[in-house]
Amino acid sequence: MTEFKIIAKTFQGLEEVLAKELINLGANNVEIGRRMVAFTGDKEMLYKANFCTRTAVKVLKPIKEFKAKDADEVYEEAKKIDWEKYMDVKSTFLVDSVIFSENFRHSKFVAYRVKDAIADYWREKSGGDRPNVVISNPDLRIHVHIAEDEVTIALDSSGESLHQRGYKTATVQAPLNEVLAAGLIMLTGWDGECDLIDPFCGSGTILIEAALIAQNVYPGVFRKEYAFEKWKDFDADLFDRIYNDDSQEREFDHKIYGYDINRQVVQIATNNVLNAGVKDIVSVEQRDFYEFEQPLDKAIMITNPPYGDRITTDDIFDLYETIGKNLKRNFVGNDAWIISHHEELFDKIGFRPSTKYALFNGSLECEFRKYQIFDGKLKERREEGLDIKTDEERRRNLKFKPHKKNEDGEWDDRRQTNDEEHYFKSKPFKDRDRSAKELPYEEEKDRKWGKDSRWKLFEAEDEEEAEIINRHLGKWGDRTIRANKGKKRDERGDSRFERGNRDGEQRERFTDRESRQEARKSFFAGKGTKDFGERRGSFEGRRGERDERRPRRDDGRPARKFDGQKGEGRPFRDRKDGKK
Asked: CA spacing 20 to 30 A to 230: which of 27, 49, 91, 442?
């Protein structure tokens, strides 16, 4: 069969995954673009791109490419297309357009002009008759794409978006797109070699897509119809052969687990799993993530936890802190992949990710991060082949290097990115230049803090020691350095306890939680201070007495500032109705 150009559209960040899928299916001349992959293939390849790919959203067949500066030029070129090859006068059609150009400000207007070109073409061919435009289920879908002055008119072979697999009976609020879910799984490299866990499974999208990937079942088996099935050159026998070919399917010897705290959500996920026919390998249970336990076998976690849009700030921060704690305690030796929207939420997890992918979940710019949950010493983890950085390697990647003198004895501040050196001005003090003798501010500093203050400690030759000093300076101030001055590193105390209280007394340092709590109780007992519960109770009592002393109206409600004045002292809705 003759090969022709085909374009598969996808989400930003999944282009390489889609390209790999198409190559495995037999596509030729594969080229990756932004949110799309162009390739060549025959009619069979076009059908496979729709039926077999997991990360494609649309598959288009371009029929004309040209340049235009306005909608009238688009109209003239569209009218030149031999539309008899693709439809007849009794066919229904629909035109949509996507535009990235300053010359074309209104995408709908371009679609109208292409529609007019098709209608005028058939009027001239048939003596006045023309095909009808319908929005729902047309015989031919036409897609117009304009980038600056480059115009592509293509036939939409998919119809409805390919993320609509057909196995979902119901969804939850803000469900994860099926194409994105499959892309997340494929980005991890998981191919069914171990168990998979999603502790925030929602409607079960990740679970079902993982089950299809593990068994190599193509997502098109659930689809009822594709747009190319209505084309004039549709080959039904060829498509039936592709549809009924299960030679690539395989057995899955592990298990996929999904959990959610909401009982109704668990029921929705269970129904979707049943409808997808993967109930034998997918288990869905109602369970709070706070109760997460260490899996018995090797497992990978791929999950899409809440982003905080419908949860209070404190609750969402607590949730992500719990995610980090449970991973460290109950997921040792495994990898966790998490997609989220806010950087602050990732910070609450408390781990350094080994891999990051920038993706979009709908209109939200997200990151998909990999966390390797390990146990044991660094050397052992290195021997296992884990990509773990040492403290020295992390220090080397710091944005700001520890302060150091160059060969001429002058202060040299530098930041290193790849092989280039970028100089910048840092200022631990008010003035940026470090020539202390020439600066009046340095003299002021000496009078304020003394000659032996933190200035000389910046000259530490050990880079690690200099970094520790700088970190302490920024966090606890000059008193910390004076307290630790002259001590060896292992003899230095925690600045929070070494610097003492206002009375000059040294605070006792506690190594466990229980002793700290006991000291707190004894401190309050010695000062005669009530504990929190007693103070709250006494406060509530005083508030009740205060309310009783408050002036009241005749009806028992609290008096207001404007009582006695006409139109005031009543709720706004009463005044609006004209009540007195």
From this structure: 27
Q: Judging by beta carbons within 10 Å of its beta carbon (0-12, 13-18, 19+), is residue 363 exposed, middle or buried? A: exposed
How far from 339 is each of 318, 330, 484, CA to CA, in Å? Answer: 17, 20, 43
Q: And the tokens for 299?
A: 């497992």
- Answer whether 206's CB lies under 8 Å from 181's CB: yes
Q: Tell me whether strands 28-32 and 414-417 are parallel, antiparallel or unpaired.
A: unpaired
- Tens of pLDDT along the chain (580 residues) come to 789 999 999 999 999 999 999 999 999 999 999 999 999 999 999 999 999 999 999 999 999 999 999 999 999 999 999 999 999 999 999 999 999 888 887 778 899 999 999 999 999 988 888 999 998 889 999 999 998 889 999 999 999 999 999 898 888 877 899 999 999 999 999 999 999 999 999 999 999 999 999 999 999 999 989 999 999 999 999 999 999 988 899 999 999 999 999 999 999 999 999 999 999 999 999 998 888 888 888 999 999 998 876 666 678 888 999 999 999 888 998 999 999 988 888 989 988 899 999 999 988 899 999 999 877 554 555 555 555 554 444 444 433 334 444 555 554 444 333 333 333 333 343 343 444 334 444 444 444 444 444 444 444 455 565 565 555 554 444 444 445 555 555 555 544 444 444 444 444 455 555 666 666 556 555 544 444 444 334 334 444 444 454 566 666 666 654 455 444 444 444 444 444 4
Question: E strand or H helix at 195, and its extent?
Answer: strand 195-198
Q: Tokens for 367?
A: 């990151």
> Which parts of 18-148 are beta strand (E)?
28-32, 36-41, 58-67, 92-100, 132-133, 140-147
Is the Cβ–Cβ distance between 178 and 361 less than 8 Å? no
Assess contact for 63 and 155: CB atoms under 8 A: yes
Task: Round to the nearest angstrom and report the end-to-end CA distance of the chain.
Answer: 86
Amino acid in position 155: L
Contacts of 339 (CB under 8 A, 6+ apart): 184, 303, 304, 359, 361, 366, 367, 368, 369
What distance lies between CA 458 and its chain's CA centroid? 40
- Longest Cα separation, the chain: 104
Torsion angle (degrees, nearest 10) of CA 456, 459, 463, 469: 10
- Chain-centroid distance, C-alpha 2: 42
Residues 3/41, Cβ–Cβ less than 8 Å: yes
pTM > 0.90: yes or no? no
**Residue (of 420, 479, 472, 409) closest to 449 by Cα position:** 479
CB 494 within 8 A of CB 509: yes
Q: What's the sign of the alpha-carbon dihedral 278, 280, 285, 289?
A: negative
* Other Cβ atoms closer than 10 A to 70: 12
Structure tokens at 392: 């020295």
Neighbouring residues of 554: CB distance < 8 A, sequence distance ≥ 6: none
Q: Which amino acid is residue 216, in one-letter code? A: N
Which helix (H) or strand (E) is 318 found in, with range? helix 313-330
Backbone φ and ψ of 55, nearest 5°: -115, 10
CB-CB neighbours of 111 under 10 Å: 22
